[in-house]
Each structure stands twice: as structure tokens, then as C-alpha cells.
Design brief:
The protein is mainly alpha-helical. About 75% of the residues lie in helices and about 0% in strands. It has helices at about 1-10, 15-25, 35-45. It is globular.
């Protein structure tokens, strides 16, 4: 989760979304998985023209 947040702070939204998606996929039952899915979705929507 922290790696995704670091990418966000650096303005690397594509990489952040990828990290969040991998986290949610690899550990769907983890407490952070729900937040990771939400962050990945939000970042992908922000990138759409």
C-alpha cells in the first residue's frame, strides 16, 4: 500500500494504480485490499481524457 502512495506523491499515477491492483489481486482478503481497489479505480478515472 505504501508503495502505491509513494507513486501517487511522485505523480506516477499509472504505476500507483498498478501497485494497488496487484495488492488487491494478490491479497483480496487483506484489510488494505478494499482501499487499494478504490485508489486504483480513482486513479484510472483521473487519467481518462
Amino acid at each position: 500500500m505504501q508503495a502505491g502512495k509513494c507513486h501517487e506523491l511522485l505523480g506516477e499515477t499509472k504505476q500507483a494504480a498498478e501497485v494497488y491492483a496487484r495488492l488487491a489481486s494478490a491479497w483480496p482478503e487483506a484489510p488494505a485490499a478494499k482501499e487499494a481497489v478504490q485508489r486504483a479505480k480513482a486513479l484510472r478515472q483521473d487519467r481518462k481524457p
